[in-house]
């Protein structure tokens, strides 16, 4: 779901303010218990939040379904905004920063690392932590 | 467009998996919260995704995604296979108990889909409740939540299973705070069901709001009960809360397997009064509807305790294999992106033959403990110890509830408590909630609980 397109659609449909928050995640999760990997799972997911307001009426929708059309999302959003009671304390969104900010906090080396290597590294880390704990704990 | 589940499974098998199962989910959650007359939280969340589990030898790999392109689905299976292959030196083995192949399609009963109802109608209902509650000057905060959930789950496995199950749940409630003369009390209540919009239309929500406000305001000036040992009658909600938290968790196969349950090694032992029969059931009226678990196992009505004797634990296919039981249909996940845990569905005690008034009258003196407005508590499945705080309750004198008291703290050891049961009512009530559920290892699932009224002799109350 394209962020810029969602923004444009929101404005074109008459929202005074619209904000989109999108997170894409690649992850490998290991749960370790009693020296063993109890569970391991990999994932690739995205999540998109859309919030908009008209006057002092504000509402939001969350989209974790890439098949959902922007139109359905905005239809629901407008329906929510229309029926919202005005929030007397609503001050709008913070003033925008200049330019579009794209923050990269992913390391491709880690994302594409070999799972065997990761598990070996985690096992070694566990050993080091245990040694350290024994050393410090006397 | 429906996904090609077969090709995802076949890809896993081609890569060397001996077993592949898929958990596909489409989830919609709609919520409106009217906070002191202002809509603070109105939103709808749409999500769709798939979880893949593969087994190679006795090693398991999980992977999940909500990017559902054919290419990424292949990658997702490949990741699960890679995990299963690389985890070997570092993990223990897992194997699944056999069960027969299942194919089914189920949509839970509903009349009107709440998603088709305009928001204005939903907000109007909440406003009616708000206006009624505003008539009570003692209320200093009024929050009215509404929620609707549509949860479709498709389970497909390389054994040929295919289950397509959709459940709709809806609910409304109120969270109230009242104060008067520096006394503050709060009450949080809700009503939910597996069904549609017709449920809300069937309730007299103004009366419901008013009744709860009156109870809360009355509890402002109610005295506290003195700590001590009392004979008590627990109402349906309180029985459900205690059974789910203090007993039900101790029957979950993964907790038993890890040695974390007070019930380890006690199958066949008398653990409760002969009047006590406890079941875990996915199809009881009023509860959450769980005809199949998230491993595709049909949900069995499990008698964990029958006439006081511990009969069974709750199982996934994995814990059934390792503990020597049968899969009971209790393998559940919060959503497609979680792995299997053993969870309760609806935990309740079977009714017996006492009328509620008869039970209280026969008790003569003690307390009538109510669950409405009960706060959570703490439990330790390893010891069976628990502490809960009830909702506003009643002192019973000469066989009559005579005076309201503030919520009381109940603490004890569940197996001791269940042995002290000397009367079980004939009024079974089971409830569920669309606003929350049971949390375990970071996963929240919808559950239900309840029972009849139950009398316990010589129970310790903390005041």
From TrEMBL, chain A:
One of its GO terms (molecular function) is metallopeptidase activity. Coiled coil: none annotated. GO terms for biological process: proteolysis. Transmembrane segments: none annotated. Residues 18-68 form the Metalloprotease TldD/E N-terminal domain. This is Metalloprotease TldD/E N-terminal domain-containing protein. It comes from Thermosphaera aggregans.
From TrEMBL, chain B:
Residues 113-218 form the Metalloprotease TldD/E central domain. InterPro entries: Metalloprtase-TldD/E_C (IPR045569), Metalloprtase-TldD/E_cen_dom (IPR045570), Metalloprtase-TldD/E_N (IPR002510), Peptidase_U62_metallo (IPR051463), TldD (IPR025502), TldD/PmbA_N (IPR035068), TldD/PmbA_sf (IPR036059). It comes from the Archaea. One of its GO terms (molecular function) is metallopeptidase activity. One of its GO terms (biological process) is proteolysis. Gene3D superfamilies: PmbA/TldD superfamily. It holds the Pfam family PmbA_TldD_3rd. One of its GO terms (cellular component) is cytosol. Keywords: Hydrolase, Metalloprotease, Protease. Residues 227-463 form the Metalloprotease TldD/E C-terminal domain. Residues 20-84 form the Metalloprotease TldD/E N-terminal domain. Belongs to the peptidase U62 family. This is TldD/PmbA family protein.
């Amino acid at each position: 779901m394209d962020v810029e397109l969602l923004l444009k659609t929101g404005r074109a449909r008459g929202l005074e303010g619209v904000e989109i928050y999108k997170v894409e995640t690649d992850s490998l999760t290991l749960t370790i218990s009693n020296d063993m990997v109890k569970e391991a799972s990999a994932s690739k997911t995205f999540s998109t939040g859309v919030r908009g307001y008209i006057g002092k009426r504000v509402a939001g929708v969350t989209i974790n379904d890439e098949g959902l059309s922007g139109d359905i999302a905005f239809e629901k959003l407008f329906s929510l905004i229309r029926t919202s009671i005005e929030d007397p304390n609503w001050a709008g969104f913070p003033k925008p920063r200049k330019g579009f900010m794209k923050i990269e906090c992913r390391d491709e080396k880690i994302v594409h690392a070999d799972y065997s290597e990761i598990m070996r590294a985690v096992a070694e880390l566990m050993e080091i932590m245990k040694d350290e704990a024994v050393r410090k704990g006397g | 467009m429906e996904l090609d589940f077969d090709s995802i499974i076949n890809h896993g098998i081609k890569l060397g998996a001996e077993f592949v199962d898929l958990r596909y989910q489409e989830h919609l959650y709609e919520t409106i919260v009217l906070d002191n007359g202002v809509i603070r939280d109105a939103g709808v969340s749409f999500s769709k995704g798939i979880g893949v589990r593969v087994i190679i030898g006795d090693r398991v790999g999980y992977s999940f995604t909500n990017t559902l392109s054919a290419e990424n689905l292949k990658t997702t299976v490949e990741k699960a296979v890679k995990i299963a292959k690389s985890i070997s030196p570092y993990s223990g083995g897992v194997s699944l108990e056999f069960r027969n192949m299942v194919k089914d399609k189920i949509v839970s009963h509903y009349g009107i889909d709440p998603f088709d109802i305009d928001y204005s109608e939903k907000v109007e209902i909440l406003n009616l409740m708000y206006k009624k509650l505003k008539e009570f000057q003692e209320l200093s905060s009024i929050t009215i939540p509404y929620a609707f959930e549509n949860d479709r789950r498709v389970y497909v496995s390389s054994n040929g299973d295919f289950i397509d199950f959709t459940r709709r749940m809806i609910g409304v409630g109120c969270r109230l705070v009242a104060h008067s003369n520096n006394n503050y009390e709060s009450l949080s209540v809700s009503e939910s069901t597996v069904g549609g919009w017709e449920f809300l239309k069937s309730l007299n929500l103004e009366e419901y709001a008013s009744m709860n406000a009156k109870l809360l305001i009355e509890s402002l000036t109610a005295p506290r009960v003195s700590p001590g040992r009392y004979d008590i009658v627990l109402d349906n909600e309180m029985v459900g809360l205690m059974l789910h938290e203090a007993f039900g968790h101790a029957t979950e196969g993964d907790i038993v397997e890890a040695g974390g349950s007070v019930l380890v090694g006690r199958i066949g032992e008398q653990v409760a009064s002969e009047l006590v029969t406890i079941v875990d059931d996915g199809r009881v009226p009023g509860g959450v509807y769980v005809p199949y678990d998230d491993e595709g196992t049909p949900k069995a009505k499990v008698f964990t305790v029958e006439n006081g004797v511990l009969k069974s634990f709750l199982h996934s296919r994995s814990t059934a294999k390792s503990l020597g039981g049968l899969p009971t249909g209790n393998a559940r996940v919060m959503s497609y992106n979680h792995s299997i845990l053993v969870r309760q569905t609806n935990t309740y005690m079977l009714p017996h033959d006492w009328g509620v008034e008869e039970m209280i009258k026969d008790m003569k003196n003690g307390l009538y403990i109510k669950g409405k407005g009960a706060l959570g508590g703490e439990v330790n499945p390893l010891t069976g110890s628990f502490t809960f705080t009830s909702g506003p309750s009643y002192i019973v004198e000469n066989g009559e509830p005579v005076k309201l008291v503030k919520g009381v703290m109940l603490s004890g050891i569940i197996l001791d408590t269940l042995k002290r049961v000397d009367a079980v009512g004939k009024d079974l009530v089971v409830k569920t909630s669309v606003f929350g559920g049971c949390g375990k290892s970071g996963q929240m699932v919808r559950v239900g609980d309840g029972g009849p009224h139950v009398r316990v002799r010589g129970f310790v109350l903390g005041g």
